[in-house]
Amino acid sequence: MKQYGIYRLEDVTIKNFEKSPDEKFILSKWLFAEWYDFLNSVVEPKVIPHRKLTAGMCTGSVLEIGAGTGANLEYLTRANKITLSEPDKYMQRKLEPLASTYSKPVELIGNTGESLPFRDNSFDSVLTTLVLCMVQDVDKVTKEAFRVLKPGGRYYFYEHVVAEKFTGRLLQKILDPVWKWGTTGCHLQRDLIKSIKNLPYSKLCLSKFQFSLGIPIVIPNIIGYVEK
Ligand SMILES: C[S@@+](CC[C@H](N)C(=O)[O-])C[C@H]1O[C@@H](n2cnc3c(N)ncnc32)[C@H](O)[C@@H]1O
Hints:
8 strands; binds S-adenosylmethionine
């Protein structure tokens, strides 16, 4: 484990965030990370209530998978120990300074959600927001999220999903290639409900709703939790 001494809080520990020497510069990824907060600021006021219902409900030891630039950090008010996983090095550069100014101990890890370096039953809460659309393997990530949860713990999610109606699905299909390119890998057409329902949960709470952009385009979203 590498400890960085340049941050204000000694409580921030960083694992697997080191850049390997042969890593290439990827312009699209760099742009996405640089612009993420700015682009998000357009929709963020509408996203905040959903962050509060997910990040804001996480208690105890919390693992966030795909933390991005750290937009959920300020809502993790009920957590007492926070671990953030973020595999994208450009996002990591945004996340590190923010985590270092946070008022609670934060651990940053560079692992993907598909292979988490934790034992079974490690966390009270696990969180993904707007992440399952981007991962390589949704089922692996949801299974990993569930595996590392303690019995009685909750995996909170807030994600966008495939449309139910034919017209919505058609629109998503048309937009998907451009969207994927512009967002460096976000898929509009994922059936995440299926993956979540496949988990061996003891309790499921799931709401579907249409996220309105204020123009005549709505994005189907899901929010909820599974309890182990
Ligand atoms: C759209 S951003 C969302 C960031 C943040 N969760 C939020 O709500 O603002 C998706 C994030 O998932 C990360 N990601 C992509 N693939 C991943 C994977 N396999 N495991 C974990 N995170 C991943 C991306 O690097 C990116 O930071």
